[in-house]
Amino acid sequence: MATIQSPATEEIHPDVALVARAKEGDEAAFEQLIRQYDRQIFRIARHITQNKEDAEDIVQDTFLKAYQKLHQFQGNSKFYTWLVRIAVNESLMRLRKRRNSKTVSMDEDVQTEEGSVPRDFADWTPDPEQQYGQGELGEILRKTIAGLSPGFRSVFTLRDVENLSTEETAEALGLSVPAVKSRLLRARLQLRERLSKHMKVKDGMTK
């Protein structure tokens, strides 16, 4: 006779308990959440804004806003995904402010469906790009990713650099899953095309 298997209990993420304690005013619990995620949030903000100082400010603004809106977090998603959404919004707002104040140089040669691409060649920390190697190729890659529009760069950063799932990326950016897949594909194609051009130029110079 076939045995009846009881449904597996869903594992509860440790963040749930920390968030619950933080909602009750436990500052130590929220500080633990900050320690867990501040590095990832900084990395995401720096990739999107291409500016270390902006990224540092965005980390502070993200956690401040998260603390102020903690009562709005219902646990329907991972706390990290919710946090990333705040960080991405803060990063894109910072880019818009920069663009409006005309402090960002614009590369007129790079146009996308989402408008002109802001170029700020701030140097990135190497950790997500170490897999691509150091030196000249790494620099070319950093500049090529910087040439993506903010919308494409956000999707590429979350999906291919931070390794969020397509569903988590969609949730963090407030997009549909098909929209994420479409932007990611176009971002990858643009990167491949531009990297290919760089490599052809480099090969031509070395021959």
Care to describe what's here?
This protein is 64% helix and 5% strand. By secondary structure, the protein is mainly α. The protein has 2 domains: 14-99, Rna Polymerase Sigma Factor, Chain: A (Orthogonal Bundle), CATH 1.10.1740.10; 105-207, Winged helix-like DNA-binding domain superfamily/Winged helix DNA-binding domain (Arc Repressor Mutant, subunit A, Orthogonal Bundle). Strands 1-2 form a two-stranded antiparallel ribbon. Helix 1 (14-23) crosses helix 2. It is elongated, with a radius of gyration of 20 Å. 28% of the residues are buried.
Q: Provide the succession of SSEs.
A: HHHHEEHHHH
CATH class of the largest domain: Mainly Alpha
What would the principal axes of the Cα set say about the shape? elongated
Low-pLDDT ranges: 103-134
| CA gyration radius, whole angstroms | 20 Å
Q: How many strand elements?
A: 2
- The tally of helices reads 8
Major sheet characteristics: 2 strands, antiparallel
State the gist of this model:
The protein contains 8 helices and 2 strands. By secondary structure, it is mainly alpha-helical. The N and C termini lie far apart (75 Å).
